[in-house]
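For consistency, the fold was encoded as tokens, as this record shows:
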Amino acid sequence: MKRRRFMHYVQAGLITSLSTGIATHWQSSPAQAAGSLSIRWLGHTCFLFSGNGTQVLVNPFRPTGCTAKYPAPQASANIVLISSRLLDEGVVEGLAGKPKLLFEPGAYKAEGLQFQGIRTLHDRVNGYRFGTNVAWKWVQGGVNVVHLGGIASPISVEQKILMGRPDVLLIPVGGSAKAYTPEEAKAAIQTLNPKVVIPTHYKTAAADPNTCDLQSVEDFLSLMQGATIRRVGGNGITISANSLPSSGQIVQVLSY
């Protein structure tokens, strides 16, 4: 059913497959290097990235379980990136306009931006219980972004080469059967050594307490000794290449 639904969107022109193979080297064009990047959290692993005149929406969801009290994302976007076809990371019905949807691993070019979709496991056993997770890497507004989606497996050498060193890493930290625990998230951060970390996929007041098995973000923050913790009094931040730390690591905790 899910495959047929996605094929319907392909035929309707809502999903664009632009894969050109695996790219291991990334260079930002002058247009990409200019300006800044605004990042707005819409709940769970869903974020809207605005920069270079382009809006990139990642992982729109249906309000249920751990996202029960969040409104369904209504943001208008040129491009939508999907990490999985689960209800909390891949609901494309009702999206405004006709955005290009990217949902499979591979190298893509859209709206003047380059994207790398990197296949990872979505559970700790063999990846089959919850299907494939796709981590996304791209450069926008001169900022190198890696969004890990709902990754649950350690980052391999090959995946690290594709991901590089992120300026901004969005990483799940709340545990459960299909995403990193706080300890696993810390290990992945040590592997990738990002400049800025934005935790995702943790329990908030929007969760249904009877069905959501995620941990609080505080469990993750307690492990991040040595990093600078910044709690943002809202759900958005703006980052430019010049504002990135020259040393050390910043953890940005957004609120909704």
